[in-house]
């Protein structure tokens, strides 16, 4: 097993050099990396969760700084942090339940713990209640119960062995915590892997017979979504806007045709002309913000406006790793990537327009090639994530299930320090 | 990571040239961390060129980053000038500890050219396969895969394809060429099908508009394309043979001027160079101050993406890109009233005062810029202090410079490290200022570079050309420092390097300042003139490709070549003939052999006839004889026995005249013994129908206007000629 540090560095370099791009790929790699960070993190007897959180945060900060545009990486870091907190809480609840039992049995126990118990257990119960929202953690909570409760029972007969038993308990808990966290991260990775299928499963509910679907550029989620509908014997037509300047729409059109879908390729500028014949716009996203706004490939804002003008539903497909708990009010969050102008222009042909050596010393031609658009939430009709369809106004609630409020600052804290 | 050791260890293990060895070699690259030129003086006296910052990042970082991302696994950084600085830099950087990417340094202190460097690398024997050869000031974001694949495929088919050069199209306009990269116009001839490079010429002779092509180019290639719109990216994919070629030709110094041209001219070894054109990716080389300026701007405009300031995070200072191409590091103290204009980079920890205006500039880390300062198109490196009210236009200011209040830097100024400019002092345009005095001659002690352009500075230290204010101080050498101080106003420190007469004309070409309008007008004027000229000529360069090869035969070079060739040819024919005589080879076979010689030397029939006749005479002279009669008999013997051979080359009058001329030449120079027999042998040749009377008469008339000395044999043959004339007259009368 290679050293975690070098793994982290390698991934950071890849992010920096834009060698890995695309939210799914980066999200998955980040999750796998964080899993190995967790598995190799040595944790003491006290405050194990804190140690794990610090380790993950330290790595996460670097990852986010390496390519702040890949919002999915930050999302995954926060998800993992949330998982750690969650597992810790559920373990604490379980332990507390065990301690409560022992405290009841030993009447002469004069520890400070009885004072703490009501407070702690209240918190633990609240946490347990919260974690019921997520079935896996509830499950693990139930599984843990007999195991961790058994330890204090056996050792509670001798009063002086209380401390020892606690440490033994903690030791097992630390291993337990790590194990549970890794399990949960594995589930997260699986979620990322299967998000396309999960989303595609809902395709039949949204695409109906003889409809015309418009999409722009290329997105794997969209491709699988359309194909899933096709496999369920829905017959419909797809308009693909080519998505200048990278023209990934061409590739999408090719793929769709290969799978037997009736496809029409149009230029981006023809969208307004074609939108009146469209029944639904289905697009992918780069990230979904907490307010329901979407960061999407460039050109989508125009599509959304066209759709609104003609009252065509604008549906955004996004795996849960694309849900970002931040609000796009801050320019530091609403990042854009300006790519090379060579995607637009041939440098050789236009080199005379970008001439600094003649005239006033500054050229009259600037070429700007942004990668992303921001689509405000009011233009989005529906989000389809792996958990189902949601309104833009509901996104903040969905996001609250995935992230802890304490972790939102991750990036903001990182930004001024660097 | 002990990388230096590795290179010497690898040198111990000699490799064989087995084809199996070629199966899987890690992709290697040689990065020359020395440009071997003096174009960046005086800055390069104190710091190697590859460590100079380009948009606040040392150039070598760009090169290494690109190599790494292009899939190169092993890089040898060849350091020469300031080798210590380069190795120290690399040791402090992250490059030596990268997984899957090893950087090893090779130090040398006596290499003065790229040729020397490659010879040294060959000696170290560290290159085992195809390698990328770039210099440390090259910047690119191209993907190497296709070029490499093409190179390998060609290599498989033809082992002589030793190099693939990366080229890029640029706008077809010498004005742009000049104003963008400051380089000379480049002409290339490329085979459009195979992409083989056939001709490479930098037009150093500015805008003369003519270039001469070897006619063989046109004869040998069914089609060629001539380009003057290509830009050489100075990225070469080389086979290991390149290194050995440099070793074999120890006089190769310059990669392009000697090596490329050498290979193109040399058709004996048959090594070939191919080109690979890149379209959407970027590649350029910082050759001089002008290209430094242009490439910096290209980086800021993101043509080099992902090698742009906000993506490449060297050190920990995150840089943010704002609208209009303003790159700001995170910790900047900037006055509210300061105006930062478009296309500007501002480094970490810089402070900018009130009402300061900055446009089109790069400001380094930790600078402090006062109030009411105007900075336009300038490159200010790290830790520079600019006091209030200064004006900087199109200048380069190196680390640690202090510019005191009210000073003005005119366009094209270069201030080297730690120079201090005094108060209210105006630094004249295009001047170069350094703390080090200007070297008195082009010595290579301080920096191992060789001067390859005449336009460079020469002689005369701290000359009085720029004496100013208190310039009358000091004649003593020990006071040098104080005199230096006075050169830049009160409280200033530094020498203004003088520019020699001829060079000042050229200064504008390579400076960071925009080309003056009048020069631009001049350039376009000359171009128009050239065009007019070539149209009048009715022979635009493009059409020259369709000319008949024969029409191009009379250049001086060709004549010299032809002379050499014909001498060799004669020798070869003689040897063939003698062998034929001694080994009784059949006449037909001799004819075949001579024909093949004729083809390989590209000779005419006349030359063959002459050569054969010459060899026959030599043979006859070789047989022992006592009197001229015996000699005559010998000649007659040889001539009769080999008559068929000679006849087969005597197809017309021209060949016959050639024989007579040859014979005459022999008689007068080589074999004086033959001279008395001239007429007799001529008669014999006539009798045997080898030479017609027309030919003889033509020969005579050709000689009519020659000197007396040349007419000796005409006189000797006077009688015979007379007889011939009468005979022909008689015939006419009949």
TrEMBL record, chain A:
Name the Gene3D superfamilies on file.
Answer: Translation initiation factor eif-2b, domain 2
Region annotation Disordered: where it falls in the sequence = 147-177
Biased segments, Basic and acidic residues type: 161-172
Give the InterPro entries listed for this entry: eIF2B_beta_subunit (IPR051855), IF-2B-related (IPR000649), IF_2B-like_C (IPR042529), NagB/RpiA_transferase-like (IPR037171)
List localization entries: Cytoplasm, Cytosol
> Which keywords has UniProt assigned to this entry?
Cytoplasm, Initiation factor, Protein biosynthesis
Question: Which Gene Ontology CC terms are recorded?
Answer: cytosol; eukaryotic translation initiation factor 2B complex
- Pfam family of the protein (one): IF-2B
- Mind telling me which SUPFAM superfamilies this protein's record contains? NagB/RpiA/CoA transferase-like (SSF100950)
Q: Name one GO molecular function term.
A: translation initiation factor activity
**Quaternary structure and interacting proteins, as annotated:** Component of the translation initiation factor 2B (eIF2B) complex which is a heterodecamer of two sets of five different subunits: alpha, beta, gamma, delta and epsilon. Subunits alpha, beta and delta comprise a regulatory subcomplex and subunits epsilon and gamma comprise a catalytic subcomplex. Within the complex, the hexameric regulatory complex resides at the center, with the two heterodimeric catalytic subcomplexes bound on opposite sides.
Family assignment from sequence similarity: Belongs to the eIF-2B alpha/beta/delta subunits family.
Q: What is the name of this protein?
A: Translation initiation factor eIF2B subunit beta
Which species is this record about? Trapa natans
From TrEMBL, chain B:
- Record's superkingdom? Eukaryota
Q: How does it assemble?
A: Component of the translation initiation factor 2B (eIF2B) complex which is a heterodecamer of two sets of five different subunits: alpha, beta, gamma, delta and epsilon. Subunits alpha, beta and delta comprise a regulatory subcomplex and subunits epsilon and gamma comprise a catalytic subcomplex. Within the complex, the hexameric regulatory complex resides at the center, with the two heterodimeric catalytic subcomplexes bound on opposite sides.
Keyword vocabulary terms for this entry: Cytoplasm, Initiation factor, Protein biosynthesis
Which Gene Ontology terms of cellular component type are present? cytosol; eukaryotic translation initiation factor 2B complex
Q: Which Gene3D superfamilies match?
A: 1.25.40.180, Hexapeptide repeat proteins (2.160.10.10), Spore Coat Polysaccharide Biosynthesis Protein SpsA, Chain A (3.90.550.10)
Q: Offer an example of a GO molecular function term for this protein.
A: translation initiation factor binding
Location in the cell reads: Cytoplasm, Cytosol
| UniProt KW Transferase keyword | no
Residue ranges of region Disordered?
Answer: 531-563
The organism named in the record is Trapa natans (Water chestnut)
Which CDD domains does the record cross-reference, listed alphabetically? eIF-2B_epsilon_N (cd04197), LbH_eIF2B_epsilon (cd05787), W2_eIF2B_epsilon (cd11558)
Q: Does the keyword Protein biosynthesis apply?
A: yes
Q: What is this protein called?
A: Translation initiation factor eIF2B subunit epsilon
Ranges where the W2 domain occurs: 563-734
Of which family is this protein a member? Belongs to the eIF-2B gamma/epsilon subunits family.
What InterPro entries does the database record attribute to this sequence?
A: ARM-type_fold, eIF-2B_epsilon_N, eIF2B_epsilon, LbH_EIF2B3/5, NTP_transferase_dom, Nucleotide-diphossugar_trans, Trimer_LpxA-like_sf, W2_domain
């Amino acid at each position: 097993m290679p050293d975690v540090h070098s793994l982290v560095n390698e991934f950071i370099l890849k992010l920096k050099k834009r060698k890995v791009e695309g939210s799914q790929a980066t999200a998955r790699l980040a999750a796998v990396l964080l899993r190995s960070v967790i598995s190799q993190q040595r944790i003491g007897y006290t405050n194990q969760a804190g140690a794990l959180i610090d380790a993950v945060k330290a790595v996460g900060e670097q990852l986010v700084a390496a390519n702040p545009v890949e919002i999915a990486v930050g999302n995954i870091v926060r998800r993992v942090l949330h998982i750690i907190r969650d597992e810790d809480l559920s373990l604490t609840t379980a332990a507390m339940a065990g301690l409560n039992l022992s405290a009841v049995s030993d009447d002469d126990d004069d520890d400070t713990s009885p004072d703490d118990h009501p407070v702690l257990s209240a918190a633990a119960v609240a946490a347990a209640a919260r974690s019921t929202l997520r079935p896996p953690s509830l499950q693990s909570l139930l599984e843990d119960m007999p195991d961790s409760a058994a330890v204090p029972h056996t050792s509670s007969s001798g009063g002086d062995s209380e401390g020892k038993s606690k440490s033994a308990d903690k030791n097992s808990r630390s291993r337990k915590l790590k194990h549970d966290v890794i399990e949960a991260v594995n589930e997260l990775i699986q979620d990322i892997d299967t998000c396309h299928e999960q989303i595609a499963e809902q395709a039949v509910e949204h695409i109906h017979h003889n409809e015309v679907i418009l999409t722009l550029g290329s997105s794997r989620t969209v491709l699988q979504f359309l194909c899933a509908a096709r496999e369920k014997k829905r017959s419909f037509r797809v308009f693909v806007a080519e998505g200048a300047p990278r023209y990934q729409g061409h590739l999408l059109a090719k793929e769709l045709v290969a799978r037997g879908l009736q496809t029409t390729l149009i230029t981006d500028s023809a969208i307004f002309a074609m939108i009146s014949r469209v029944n639904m716009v289905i697009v992918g996203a780069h990230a979904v913000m907490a307010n329901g706004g979407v960061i999407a490939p460039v050109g989508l804002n125009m599509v959304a406006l066209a759709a609104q003008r003609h009252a065509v539903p604008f549906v955004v497909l996004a795996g849960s790793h694309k849900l970002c708990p931040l609000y796009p009010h801050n320019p530091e969050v609403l990042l854009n990537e300006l790519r090379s102008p060579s995607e637009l222009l041939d440098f050789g042909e236009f080199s005379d327009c970008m001439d600094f050596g003649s005239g006033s010393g500054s050229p009259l031609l600037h070429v700007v090639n942004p990668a992303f658009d921001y689509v405000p939430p009011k233009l989005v009709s529906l989000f389809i994530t792996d958990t189902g369809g949601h309104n833009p106004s509901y996104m903040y609630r969905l996001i609250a299930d995935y992230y802890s409020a304490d972790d939102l600052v991750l990036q903001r804290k990182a930004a001024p320090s660097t | 990571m002990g990388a230096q050791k590795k290179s010497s260890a690898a040198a111990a293990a000699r490799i064989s040239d087995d084809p199996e060895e070629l199966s899987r070699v890690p992709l290697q690259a040689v990065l020359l961390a020395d440009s071997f030129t003096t174009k960046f003086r005086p800055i390069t006296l104190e710091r190697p060129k590859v460590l100079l910052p380009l948009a606040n990042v040392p150039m070598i970082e760009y090169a290494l980053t690109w190599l790494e991302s292009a899939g190169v696994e092993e890089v040898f950084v060849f350091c020469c000038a300031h080798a210590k600085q380069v190795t120290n830099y690399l040791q402090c950087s992250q490059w030596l500890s990268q997984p899957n990417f090893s950087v090893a340094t090779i130090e040398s202190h006596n290499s003065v050219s790229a040729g020397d460097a490659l010879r040294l690398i060959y000696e170290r024997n560290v290159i085992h396969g195809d390698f990328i050869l770039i210099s440390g000031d090259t910047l690119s974001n191209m993907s190497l895969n296709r070029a490499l694949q093409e190179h390998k495929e060609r290599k498989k088919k033809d082992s002589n394809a030793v190099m693939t050069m990366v080229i890029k199209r640029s706008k077809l306009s010498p004005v742009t060429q000049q104003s963008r990269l400051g380089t000379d116009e480049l002409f290339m001839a490329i085979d459009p099908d195979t992409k083989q490079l056939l001709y490479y010429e930098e037009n150093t002779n500015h805008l003369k508009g003519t270039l001469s092509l070897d006619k063989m180019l046109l004869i040998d290639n069914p089609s060629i394309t001539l380009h003057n719109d290509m830009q050489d990216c100075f990225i070469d994919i080389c086979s290991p043979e390149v290194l050995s070629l440099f070793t074999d030709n120890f006089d190769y110094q310059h990669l392009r001027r000697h090596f490329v041209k050498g290979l193109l001219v040399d058709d004996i070894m048959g090594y070939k160079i191919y080109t690979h054109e890149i379209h959407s990716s970027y590649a350029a080389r910082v050759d001089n101050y002008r290209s430094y300026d242009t490439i910096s701007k290209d980086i800021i405009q993101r043509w080099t993406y992902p090698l742009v300031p906000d993506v490449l995070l060297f050190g920990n200072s995150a840089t943010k890109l704002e609208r209009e191409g303003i790159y700001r590091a995170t910790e900047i103290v900037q006055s509210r009233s300061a105006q930062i204009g478009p296309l500007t980079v501002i480094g970490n920890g810089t402070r900018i005062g009130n009402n300061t205006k900055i446009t089109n500039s790069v400001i380094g880390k930790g600078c402090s810029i006062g109030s009411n300062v105007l900075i336009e198109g300038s490159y200010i490196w790290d830790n520079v202090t600019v006091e209030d009210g200064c004006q900087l236009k199109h200048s380069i200011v190196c680390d640690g410079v202090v510019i005191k209040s009210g000073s003005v830097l005119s366009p094209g100024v270069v201030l080297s490290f730690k120079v201090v400019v005094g108060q209210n002092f105006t630094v004249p345009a295009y001047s170069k200022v350094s703390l080090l005095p200007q070297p008195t001659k082009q010595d290579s002690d301080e920096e191992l570079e060789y001067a390859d352009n005449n336009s460079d500075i020469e002689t005369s230290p701290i000359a009085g050309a720029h004496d100013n204010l208190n310039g009358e101080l000091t004649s003593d050498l020990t006071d040098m420092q104080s005199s230096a101080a006075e050169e830049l106003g009160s409280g200033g420190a530094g020498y203004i390097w003088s520019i020699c007469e001829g060079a000042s004309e050229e200064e504008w070409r390579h400076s960071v300042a925009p080309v003056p309008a009048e020069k631009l007008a001049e350039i376009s004027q000359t171009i128009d003139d050239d065009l007019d000229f070539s149209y009048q000529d009715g022979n635009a360069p493009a059409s020259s490709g369709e000319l008949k090869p024969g029409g191009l035969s009379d250049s001086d070079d060709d004549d010299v070549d032809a002379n050499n060739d014909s001498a060799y040819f004669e020798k070869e024919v003689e040897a063939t003939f003698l062998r034929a005589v001694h080994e009784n080879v059949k006449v037909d076979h001799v004819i075949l052999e001579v024909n093949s010689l004729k083809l390989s030397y590209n000779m005419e029939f006349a030359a063959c006839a002459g050569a054969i006749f010459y060899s026959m005479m030599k043979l006859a002279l070789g047989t022992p004889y006592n009197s001229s009669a015996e000699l005559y008999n010998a000649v007659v013997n040889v001539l009769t026995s080999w008559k068929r051979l000679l006849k087969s080359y005597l197809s017309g009058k021209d060949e016959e005249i050639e024989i007579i001329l040859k014979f005459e030449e022999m008689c007068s120079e080589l074999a004086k013994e033959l001279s008395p027999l001239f007429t007799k042998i001529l008669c014999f040749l006539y009798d045997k129908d080898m030479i017609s009377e027309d030919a003889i008469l033509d020969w005579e008339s050709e000689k009519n206007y020659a000197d007396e000395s040349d007419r000796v044999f005409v006189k000797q043959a006077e009688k015979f000629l007379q007889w011939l004339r009468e005979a022909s007259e008689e015939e006419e009368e009949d």
